[in-house]
Amino acid sequence: MDVKLVSSILGTVVKVAAVLPLLPLPISLLYGELDCIAPLLLTSLIMLVCGVALERIARVERHVRPRHAIVAVPIIWLVIPLFTSLPYRFCEHMSWLDAYFESMSGWTTTGLTVLPDIDHAHRTILFWRSLEQWVGGLGIVVSIISILRFETPSLLYVAEAREERIRPNVVNTAKEMWKIYITITAVGFLALWAAGMNPFDALNHSMTAVATGGFSTRSESVTAWHSPTVELITVVLMVLGATSFVTHYRVAKTFRTSPAELPKRIIKALRQYLQDRQFLTMIGLTAAVTAYAGAVSGDRAWDVVRYYGYQAVSAITCCGFSNADVLSFPEYAKLAITILMIVGGSTASTAGAIKVLRFLIMAEAVKAAIARRTQPIRGVVVPRIGSRVLSEDEISDAFAIASAYMFFLLIGTLLLTAYGYPLVDALFEVASAQGGVGLSSGITAPNAPAFVKILLIFHMWIGRLEVLPCLAALYWLTLILKRLAVKGRD
C-alpha cells in the first residue's frame, strides 16, 4: 500500500473542498452574523493549508489503484467532517463531539441533529448544514471528480459506493449529475417560495430535500408551515432525489429530443419513470406501508395519507423530513417505517440504505433458485431484471452488501438496547443513522450519552459508503499499521 498516494488523494480533496466554507459568507453578511465570518475563514484556511501540505509531502503521481481508492475514500469521509465541524464549534459553541456529529450527519445526508436550538441558531450555520447535505448528496469525491481529473477517476467513483453511469466517462457522468441536481434544486426552490416559504427557508429545504438529507431551518421540520402544499412539494423533491439520476437523464433526453408536441413529449418522458422498476418499487412499498398503517390504526384516510404516508416517503427516500411526531407513533408503525429505512431508494441517487435494486436482484436470485428446484432437470433458469441478465458478481455483491449491512445494523441495535433503550426505538434509530435517513425515535439529542453519539457517527459513516468500502479500508489500514509496527521494532 502506497501511503503517500493515499495522502496525495486526501490532500487534493481537502484542498478543493476548502472553498466550501466561503460559500455561507454572503449569508453572514446579509443577516449581520459577523461572528460567523472568522470561523468560516479559519476553516477554509486550515483546509487549504492541510490539503496543500499533504500533497507536497506525498509528491507522487496519481496512479490510483483499487486498494488506494478503497482506503482513501472512507478516510476522506472521516476527515472532511472533522474540518467542517469548526463552524459549529465556534459559531454555536457546541462541544467537539457534538460539532463532529452534526458535520458527519450533514455530509452523509443523515439529518440527525444535536444542535441545541435550531429555531434560534445562526442562519449562517443553518445554511452551512444544508450546504453540507447538498454537496454530500452526490458525494464528496463525485463532486471533486467533476472539477479535477484523476488518472483513474472510475476507481474513486466506485469506492464512493456508486456504480451506474449516465455517460461512459466518469467525469462526464459527474457533470451530468450536477446539471440535473442543480435544475431540480432550482425548481424546488421556486416552488417552495411560491408555496409560502421565505426565500431562505425555501432554498434550504429544496437543497436538503433533493439531497434526501432532511436538515430543516425549524425544529418542527416542515410541520412548522402547516401547509399541505409545502408537504406535497417536498414529497416530490424527496422522490426525485431518491430516483436514479440515470432515469432523470433519460427523461430529460427524451423530452429534449422528441419531435412531438409538448403534451406528447411530457407523456413520453413520464413513461421513462414508469419503466424504472426501482422507481415503481419505491412507490409500491410506500403505498403498502401507508395502507398497512391505515388498516391497523383505523384513522381517517386523509390523516393516514398525510402523516403516515409522508413519513413513509421520508423513510424510503432516506430524507428525514417529518410532518408529525414520530415518537407518538405506535410500535407497528415504527417497525414498518424502519423496514423502509433499511430498503432505501434507488442506486445512482442521493438516497442511502441497501437500495431497492439490490433487493430486486436478491429476489430474482431467490426466484431463480426456487425455479431450478421445481422445473425439469434440463430447464435453464437465468435470473434477470427486465431483459438484462444478472451476472454472478451482481448477485454475490447484492447479498454481500445486504448481509454486512444487516450485521452492523443488528450490532448497533444490540448495543443501544444494552445501554437501556427500548428495542424498537433502538432499531429505529440505528436504521435511521445507517440509512442516512434522519428520522428519530428520540434517542438522538444534545444530552445523549457520548457513547450513543459515537456509535451513531460510526453507523452514519459505514452506511453512507455501504459498509464494504469501510471494511476494506479498515483491513488495509490494519496491514499498514502492522508493517509500521514491524519497522519500528527493527
Question: What would you note in describing this structure?
Answer:
The protein has helices at residues 3-17, 25-30, 37-58, 66-83, 86-91, 96-107, 123-138, 140-145, 153-159, 170-194, 199-210, 228-242, 245-257, 262-274, 277-297, 301-316, 331-343, 356-374, 392-418, 423-434, 450-464, 468-489, and strands at 384-385, 388-389. The protein is mostly helical and 490 residues long. Helix 1 (3-17) packs across helix 4 (66-83), helix 4 (66-83) crosses helix 22 and helix 11 runs parallel beside helix 12. It starts with a helix and ends with a helix.
Summarize the structure.
The chain has 22 helices and two strands. The chain has helices at residues 3-17, 25-30, 37-58, 66-83, 86-91, 96-107, 123-138, 140-145, 153-159, 170-194, 199-210, 228-242, 245-257, 262-274, 277-297, 301-316, 331-343, 356-374, 392-418, 423-434, 450-464, 468-489; strands at residues 384-385, 388-389.
> Helix- and strand-based class?
mainly alpha
From the spread of the alpha carbons, the general shape counts as globular
Output the strand order for the largest sheet: 1-2
What gyration radius follows from the Cα positions, in whole Å?
22 Å
Average pLDDT, rounded to a whole number, is 89
Per DSSP E runs of 2 or more residues, the count of β-strands stands at 2
**C-alpha termini separation:** 19 Å
Q: Can you tell me the residue ranges where pLDDT is under 50 for at least 5 consecutive residues?
A: none
Q: Please summarize the sheet with the most strands.
A: 2 strands, antiparallel
Helical fraction:
55-70%
Strand content: under 5%
Count of discrete alpha- or pi-helical segments spanning 4 or more residues: 22
